[in-house]
Design brief:
It contains 28 helices and 32 strands. The chain has 859 residues and is of the alpha/beta class. It comes from Dactylosporangium siamense.
Amino acid sequence: MMSTASRYWRDLLEDFEEPTRLTPSRSGHRPAATVHAASIGWDPAQTAALTAVADRIGVRAQDVVVAAWGLLLATHAGTDDVVHGALIAGDTTEVLPVRARPVPSRLMSAHLRDTAEQYAENVRHAGLPAAQLAEASGVVDGAALFDTLVRCGALVPDPADLVQLQVDLGGAGAQLRLSAPADLLTEADVRLLLVHASQLLAAVAAAPVTARLRDVGPQSGFEQHRAVRQWNATGTAREPGRCIHDLFERQAALTPDAVAVLQGADRLTYAELDAAAGRLARRLAAAGVGPGDFVALHLSRTVQTVVALLGVLKAGAAYAPVDPAQPVERIRGLLRTLRVPVVLTDPGALPTVHAVTEAVPTVREVLWLGAPGLGPAESWGLAEAGSVVPREAREADVAYVIFTSGSTGTPKGVVLTHAPVVNLIDWVNETHAMGPADRVLFITSLGFDLSVYDVFGVLAAGGSIRVASDAEIRDPQRLLSILDSEPITFWDSAPAALQQLEPLFALRAANTSSRLRLVFLSGDWVPLTLPDAVRGAFSGAEVVALGGATEAAIWSNAFPVGTVDPAWTSVPYGRPIANAHYYVLDAALRPAPVGAPGDLFIGGDCLALGYHGDAELTAAKFVPDHLSGRPGARLYRTGDRARYWADGTIEFLGRQDQQVKVRGFRIELGEVEAALATLPGIATAVATVHGARAGAQLVAYVVPEPGVYPDPRDVREHVATLLPAYMVPAHVITLDELPVTTNGKLDRRALPEPGEDGPARPPYVAPSTAAEKAIAATWAELLELDQVGLDDNFFDLGGHSLLITQLIARLKATLEIDVPVRAVLDHQTAGAFAAVVEAALIAELTAPVPTPDATVAAV
């Protein structure tokens, strides 16, 4: 039978699942045996003020200290639910857990009284061993319930395993001492935490009776001014009134004969591109398209893609990228949502697009752009529009909409105007000296906003765009060959796209003639090894990590990656760009202390209008800017967690909600779950991500209806008809029921790893030939498996694009053969792929060796 004390502690701690952790402001090795400590003395007047406010509220000064420690921990740990140890001398000799759940809008006096009452109740129910207190909570078995402590009374020796604040109020003036093990906090962290403890107690003592928790914080006015003003001193004057295509038109007038865009034999000069885009703009105007309209782009990757982008903007309209590979119903949904009047496509895709748009009544016309290979004058399947003059766009007009994954199951369209994009283009081109000698290898999808700079930014600088074909993008070997053999100066992608090439760098001779000078990486974590690998493969290349959001005009912060500090856990996020503002805020929307996790907000002249057709979501994500002092200014609530370094650099810590990133793609888990739930026989579904950063994989868990036994492969195939490829789970795991915590919430920690209960593997078939044994062993090593059978599927075992490249690189290094990436996609089982490898080896061994005479004869 449960005792009264056990029941009390269970009721207090049962749903507390994650211990409160203070993290050091910078990573790195620190000796475990060392304890850092610092002290501050208060004069009698300060101590008297603290006692006076306690008397006014009806609690003891020691109770105020205990409550203040909980508030300080909540701020520095970046959480709204804290458990810490507390001991007030004279009440008990036992350190007791205290739970604090501060609400910023609550009266400070009420919070202080509640904390005092809780501590008194805790003392009355003292006596349970620490292990039983931890068991009463929801923390993982064996984990300590807390590792921070506040002690009121005479100062005692510092513990070696706890972060401890000691406050002695026994004299005329108070003494504050804070200590922490060196493996938990740095010496600077300890000093800052102590100063903040002192400042918070002083703020509590000086606060009026009407003060709320959000009004009382630990930071000084200087610290807040530094975060709000000094670290956001990015103001830069810009020429007003410009649109994105204006930047191109100015450059076209300066360098009409320079090459603007090319792919193989197809190329257009600036003058030819301007003329072709102008013809499209007039044709769109004749179709009634202008400012406020969206034109859908259903295009493959050719030089005509760039014509389409510019032509739509010249018509005063906005473009909406549509990935031809997306499921038909998803495409129809986007067209309906935007009320698209015109769709631009390729000649070969006309039947498909007509079939898609027949069910979309707003689409009045489907126009096609000429096939590659035709001259600029013949590159149109469109009649001239005569004298119809397009209506001009203004900088506040919409330029494009990009759809990202939506938590409700419906994609959300982020709407951008011209002005913030022009600001971004100006910043990149000025900061990185982009000019006519630059050429980008354009590999990004139009649905990924990096493409906006790759096209319009490079053209604004007078550079050229080398459009990579769909086939080239799928083949890392071909991309590396282009970087080695063509005058590419600029690479821009998510880290995963470049990381596919990294295993191939060492398989070629060092390229001393490469012209690659600038590498932009954004959209996801940058692997710590990648910058040095890039510089080793392309001498002289500068690597820049960038961040931001589609909602903030592509990039709004940057960090040039020089020497990679061994103490880093990730490449820093960096600083805001020109006219952008970045804030890391606590729960009360105040700047978070240096080193403390907080919510990341973006402000300034870089923000999108909002989400198309969704005023409620727009209002929730774009909130009033209470920090800049500019009337009508907004902040974008990114949903990211971050923290400041002491110099103002921002470190990205990850997402705080159900939105995740897998190899650079933004995914709302709710949209994946909604799609799974629509499938026949599925009662409920949950999606999550296993693995970190480059190794992250989307995993779905489905609970079938009674009597239904879904095949995981069939589930994946069906959901692929509803979602883009990057949102299709790598694994589908069937469960009898979803695991829940004791309070009925989904227990994500209890969801099985893919290897525990993943897709059913076929019966093991042992490899027999040398090639089969080599492939099975290589796959097992790459996929971290004990063994691989001939019928095992590479992707069902957890393989993905980055591992394909590593596989190809290993075959090159060990067997000295070149196997195309496509071979893995077309032959996904170990046995089938081994046959391809064996054929390649035989071809290599039986190839005739040319004799000197034969070589001369061939010439």
